[in-house]
Amino acid sequence: MKWNLIPYEKQNGEKPVTVYLNSLDTKHRVKVLRNLQLLEEFGPTKEMREKIKPLGNGIFELRTQFSNNIFRILYFHLVDKNLILTNGFTKKTEKTPPREIKKAKDYRDDFLKRKGDQR
């Protein structure tokens, strides 16, 4: 059974992860989408260990490396096999900016407030 990858949606209907993916050029988007397909297939299991990093407080990142760039999609686990994709960004260094982690946490808190905490 596959995992469900659900883009977080703001109250205004914007989906930050979709906006990020659409901002990438085609070859980068294809690489990131391939890793999202793998996450959908395997979930956060040992097969994905090298592509996933816990960032604390229930937030994780899916990393896709291409040349000198690292494309990152942040997400959290809701219930069962549901992963909520919050936001994405591109970074050339290993360290994840605290503002991106905070953004993911804020999106998670908003999601749980509006949808009900289903964890």
Q: Which assembly state applies to the chains in this document?
A: single chain
Shape: globular
Biggest β-sheet description: 5 strands, mixed
Domain module count = 1
Structural class: alpha+beta
The chain-level mean pLDDT equals 93
CATH class, named Alpha Beta
SSE string:
EHHEEEEH
Rg measurement, Å: 13 Å
Strand order of the largest sheet: 1-5-4-3-2
Q: Kindly identify the CATH topology.
A: YaeB-like fold
Task: Please state roughly what percent of the residues sit in beta strands, choosing from under 5%, 5-15%, 15-25%, 25-35%, 35-45% or over 45%.
Answer: 25-35%
Q: Give helix % range.
A: 25-40%
Strand tally: 5
> What CATH architecture label applies?
2-Layer Sandwich
Low-confidence stretches: none
The N- and C-terminal alpha carbons lie at a distance of 20 Å
Characterize the structure shown.
- The chain is an alpha+beta fold.
- The chain has one domain (4-115): YaeB-like fold, CATH 3.30.2310.
- 36% of the residues lie in helices and 30% in strands.
- The protein has helices at residues 16-23, 26-42, 98-115; strands at 4-7, 52-56, 59-66, 69-77, 82-91.
- The longest helix is centred in the C-terminal third of the chain and has 18 residues, at 98-115.
Descriptive labels:
single chain; alpha+beta; YaeB-like fold; 5 strands
Write the layout of secondary structure elements.
Layout: E1 4-7, H1 16-23, H2 26-42, E2 52-56, E3 59-66, E4 69-77, E5 82-91, H3 98-115
Parallel strand pairs: 1-5
Antiparallel strand pairs: 2-3, 3-4, 4-5
Could you give a quick summary of the protein structure above?
The protein is built from 3 helices and 5 strands; from the N terminus they run E-H-H-E-E-E-E-H. With 119 residues, the chain is α+β, with helices and mostly antiparallel strands. It has a 5-stranded mixed β-sheet with strand order 1-5-4-3-2.
